[in-house]
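Propose amino acids for all 351 sites.
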C-alpha cells in the first residue's frame, strides 16, 4: 500500500517576532530615517564649514577689528597723527643732518689726490718736461705763465711722487741706476722746492714676465700697446711741502707780502749729462754719455696730508657720518621737543 507524503507544515513566527519587538531586539525602520550617504555628506560639510571659519572667516574678522581700531576710532586717530608727526620730525632731522654733513665734508675735506701727466721731451741729453700746475682742464696760452686756477689749497701740505711706467727691456735693465730730478717753481722761474732721487729698475722673474706677456696678449689687443712687459715704479720726491702758501715770515720780500704759489714743475729723468767728470780714483777725465731711459708713461702725483677733523672725515667716512647723524639729530630733536613742550604749556595756560 502506497504511503502518502504530506507537505511540511509551515512554522508560524508571529508570536516570536512580536515578542522580539516587545523586548527591543528588532526595531522597525522608519520611512524618514537618514541614509548613510546623507550622514557622510553632512559630516563633510560640517568639517568644511569649520575649516572655512578657522582659516578665512576668523582672520578676516580679526583684520577688520584691528583696522577699525587703528584707523577708524578717535583714539587711534590721535595716536596715528602723533606717530606721523614724530616720524616726519625724525626724518626731517635726518635729512638736515645729511645735508649738514655733506656741507661740512665739502668745506673741510679738500681734494686729496691730484695728478698731472708728464710728457717727456726727447732730444739732446736726458728726457725732460715742464708741467703746468693748473686746475683748468684746458691748455693755456704760451705766454700765460701764471696758473689760471690754483691747483693746491692754501697752507695745505702735500706729498709729491712720480709714477713711471717703464718697459722691462735690455736697454733699461742694462742702464742700472738713473736719476729723477724735479723742481717746483713760480711763474717767474723762482725755484721753491727741488728733489733728486735715484731709481733702479729691478726686473721681475722670467716666469712672471712671460705670464704677464701672455695675459696682455689674451685680454688686450696686441697692436694697441707694446708686447714687452712694463713695470710701475713710484718715486717719492718731496714730503709735506706747501706749494701754495699765504704770506710767510722769512724769504724774499714778495713772499713775505703775498705768499707764493707753485705753478710749474720741471722734471728730468736719466743719467747725468755733465761732461769731463773727474772721479777721485782716476786721473783721467771720464766722459759720461747721456743714456736715454725708455719710459712709456709718467705721472706727477700730489697727495694732501690731512690732520684733525678733515683726516677723520676722509679716512673714516662711515664712522664720521654715523657720529654726525647721532649728534646733529639729537640736537635737532631736543630743540624740537623743547619748542613743542613750551607751546603746549603756553596754550594750556591760555585755555
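Proposal:
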Amino acid at each position: 500500500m502506497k504511503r502518502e507524503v504530506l507537505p511540511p507544515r509551515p512554522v508560524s513566527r508571529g508570536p516570536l517576532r512580536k515578542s522580539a519587538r516587545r523586548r527591543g531586539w528588532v526595531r522597525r525602520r522608519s520611512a524618514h530615517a537618514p541614509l548613510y550617504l546623507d550622514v557622510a555628506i553632512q559630516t563633510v560639510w560640517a568639517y568644511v564649514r569649520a575649516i572655512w571659519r578657522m582659516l578665512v572667516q576668523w582672520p578676516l574678522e580679526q583684520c577688520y577689528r584691528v583696522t577699525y581700531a587703528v584707523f577708524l576710532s578717535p583714539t587711534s586717530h590721535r595716536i596715528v597723527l602723533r606717530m606721523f608727526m614724530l616720524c616726519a620730525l625724525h626724518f626731517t632731522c635726518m635729512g638736515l643732518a645729511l645735508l649738514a654733513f655733506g656741507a661740512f665734508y665739502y668745506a673741510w675735506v679738500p681734494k686729496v689726490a691730484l695728478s698731472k701727466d708728464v710728457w717727456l721731451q726727447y732730444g739732446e741729453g736726458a728726457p725732460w718736461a715742464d708741467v703746468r700746475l693748473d686746475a683748468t682742464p684746458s691748455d693755456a696760452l704760451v705766454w700765460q705763465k701764471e696758473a689760471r686756477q690754483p691747483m693746491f689749497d692754501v697752507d695745505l701740505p702735500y706729498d709729491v711722487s712720480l709714477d713711471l711706467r717703464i718697459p722691462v727691456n735690455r736697454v733699461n735693465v742694462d742702464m742700472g741706476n738713473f736719476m729723477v730730478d724735479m723742481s717746483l717753481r713760480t711763474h717767474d722761474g723762482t725755484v721753491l722746492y727741488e728733489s733728486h732721487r735715484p731709481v733702479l729698475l729691478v726686473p721681475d722673474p722670467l716666469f712672471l714676465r712671460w705670464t704677464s706677456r701672455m695675459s696682455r696678449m689674451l685680454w688686450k689687443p696686441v697692436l694697441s700697446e707694446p708686447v714687452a712687459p712694463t713695470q710701475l715704479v713710484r718715486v717719492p720726491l718731496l714730503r709735506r711741502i706747501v706749494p701754495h702758501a699765504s704770506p710767510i715770515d722769512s724769504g724774499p720780500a714778495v713772499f713775505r707780502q703775498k705768499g707764493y704759489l707753485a705753478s710749474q714743475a720741471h722734471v728730468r729723468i736719466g743719467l747725468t749729462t755733465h761732461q769731463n767728470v773727474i772721479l777721485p780714483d782716476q786721473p783721467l777725465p771720464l766722459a759720461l754719455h747721456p743714456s736715454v731711459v725708455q719710459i712709456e708713461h709718467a705721472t706727477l702725483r700730489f697727495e694732501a696730508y690731512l690732520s684733525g677733523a678733515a683726516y677723520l672725515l676722509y679716512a673714516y667716512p662711515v664712522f664720521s657720518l654715523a657720529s654726525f647723524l647721532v649728534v646733529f639729530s639729537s640736537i635737532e630733536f631736543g630743540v624740537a621737543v623743547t619748542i613743542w613742550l613750551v607751546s603746549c604749556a603756553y596754550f594750556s595756560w591760555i585755555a
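Residues 273-290 have pLDDT under 50 and may be disordered. The helical segments are 14-23, 36-72, 74-108, 170-175, 206-219, 253-258, 309-315, 317-350.
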